[in-house]
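Reminder to self: tokens first, then the designed residues, so the page reads top to bottom the way the pipeline ran.
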């Protein structure tokens, strides 16, 4: 769609505008080492890029700034995802080599460190199961062939599911399994239940309960459906420090958004897997139509359990944030999978 020269000029304008937050003129571009064109040639190309909707000219300024369409083209075609600052990489590696004993603090720390590295606002969505514990399990027979598995947590959350009762498991064994389960696992975080079932009390169950493996599978199905999520944010002041947000009304709408956490939870919950970039009005939340949101999902043992996002002005360092998010989501997925085998 664009010539090589137009691509180079658009990339230069985006890079310069990200750094300076000031409209970029042809003369400043002509001084770059990687640009060999005259200011006149650059002005003509800038005019064409503006006609095509990739650039905008604010007020009567001689310079141009990228439009949302220009940022989209930059993200889709010009960002180098192989680049990563060595200092940022070392800081992330240092963070992940520290043994973190309390899992509920992981996402809080992830949000804080990512906000510090990028100087934008970070949002992390993780499962409530990180710090929700088991109060008790019930398995209520409804007929000879069906039962309801009910899990009640310390927060009062109730998860239930209709299941088929294994034909070769008598009711007396189901009752024994439930009693044993509650005696051994009450107070255990939900994310630990699977590993404790198989690794710590599995042998004991095998000696006391007939058909215990089939009963464990019934409980697992309910645990896998427990997806209540918790939001962590950090660095809102970074956003307010950006020149784009000197407008009081813009700031007010952002603060209201962060007060209404359910909207942010829905926003991050709806993100597709992998790195996703939404620029300006591509976001379906009006309060961030002047922002860009970059997200990455993370998983545990192959199961998608959360999303990490960076919210900043459309004048964002896309390459840096996308690379860091990719690095971070891969590492946190690996760590959580090793902790909760």
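Designed residues (341 positions):
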């Amino acid at each position: 769609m664009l010539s090589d020269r137009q691509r180079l000029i658009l990339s230069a304008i985006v890079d310069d505008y990200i750094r300076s937050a000031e409209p970029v003129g042809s003369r400043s571009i002509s001084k770059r080492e990687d640009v060999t064109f005259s200011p006149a040639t650059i002005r003509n190309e800038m005019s064409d890029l503006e006609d095509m909707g990739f650039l905008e000219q604010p007020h009567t300024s001689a310079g141009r700034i990228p439009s949302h369409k220009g940022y989209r083209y930059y993200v889709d075609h010009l960002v180098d995802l192989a680049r990563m600052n060595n200092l940022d990489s070392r800081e992330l590696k240092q963070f992940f080599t520290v043994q973190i004993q309390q899992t509920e603090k992981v996402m809080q720390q992830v949000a804080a460190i990512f906000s510090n590295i990028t100087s934008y606002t970070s949002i992390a969505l993780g499962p409530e199961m990180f710090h929700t514990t088991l109060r008790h399990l019930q398995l209520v027979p409804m007929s000879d062939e069906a039962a309801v598995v009910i899990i009640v947590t310390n927060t009062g959350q109730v998860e239930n599911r209709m299941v088929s009762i294994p034909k070769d498991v008598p009711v007396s064994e189901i009752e024994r399994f439930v009693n044993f389960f509650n005696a051994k696992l009450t107070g255990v975080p939900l994310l630990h239940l699977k590993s404790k079932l198989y690794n710590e009390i599995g042998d004991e169950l095998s000696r006391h309960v007939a058909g215990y493996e089939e009963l464990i599978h019934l409980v697992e199905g309910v645990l896998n459906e427990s997806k209540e999520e918790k939001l962590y944010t950090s660095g809102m002041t970074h956003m307010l420090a950006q020149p784009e947000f000197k407008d009081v009304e813009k700031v007010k709408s952002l603060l209201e958004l962060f007060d209404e956490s359910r909207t942010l939870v829905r926003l991050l919950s709806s993100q597709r897997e992998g790195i996703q970039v939404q620029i300006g009005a591509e976001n379906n939340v009006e309060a961030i139509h002047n922002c860009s949101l970059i997200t990455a999902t993370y998983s545990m043992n192959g199961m998608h359990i959360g999303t990490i996002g960076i919210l900043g002005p459309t004048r964002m360092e896309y390459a840096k944030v996308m690379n860091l998010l990719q690095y971070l989501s891969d590492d946190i997925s690996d760590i959580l999978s090793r902790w909760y085998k």
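The beta strands are 55-56, 65-66, 121-127, 134-141, 146-153, 158-164, 229-234, 276-279, 291-300, 303-313.
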